[in-house]
Amino acid sequence: MSLANSLYVALTSINVPTDQAREVVDALEKKMTNEFANKSDIALIRADSAASHNGMKAEFAAVRNEMKAEFAAVRNEMKAEFAAVRAEMKAESAGLRADMKAEFAAVRAEMKADSAGLRAEMHALQNRLLIQLGALMVVLLGILPAVRSWLGW
């Protein structure tokens, strides 16, 4: 026996008029068929939910793969940029080293020339001093006898 028949029998057994019992059963049946979910409705919802879940999984996997590819591209671009910067810095430092070597060589040559000039000046001063000392000795030796006589030695 169906639920509607059982309900009808129960209502009529407690002296509810048949028209009213039929209205209650019809209203309940209408409510149950239009507003309540049954097993097949729930199965459809589950299937739809599983399909949505699988679709989202696939979409997330696609986004993940796309991001991996994008990150790999950025990583490769950065590697290339870093290599270019390294090469540029290497060339700059090599140029700077060459400039510094040339500058140091020029400073060394200048210092060498300056020290050679100083040596020549010192040698000339030494010679002048030696000549002046010799002249002084000659003068002293020349006037020494006169000084001796003045001093009475």
Structure description:
It is a single chain. By secondary structure, the protein is mainly alpha-helical. The protein has two domains: 1-36, no CATH class; 37-151. The chain is 93% helix and 0% strand. It is built from three helices and no strands. The N and C termini lie far apart (173 Å). The mean pLDDT is 91.
N→C terminal distance: 173 Å
Report on the biggest sheet. Answer: none
Q: Any idea how many domains?
A: 2
DSSP strand count: 0
- Morphology: rod-shaped
Fraction of residues in helix: over 70%
Strand content: under 5%
- Our count of helices gives 3
Mean pLDDT: 91
Low-confidence stretches: none
Classify the secondary structure makeup into a structural class. mainly alpha
Secondary-structure blueprint of this entry?
Elements: H1 3-13, H2 18-35, H3 39-151
Quick recap of the structure?
By secondary structure, this protein is mostly helical. It has two domains: 1-36, no CATH class; 37-151.
What attributes does this structure have?
153 residues, mainly alpha, 2 domains, 3 helices, rod-shaped
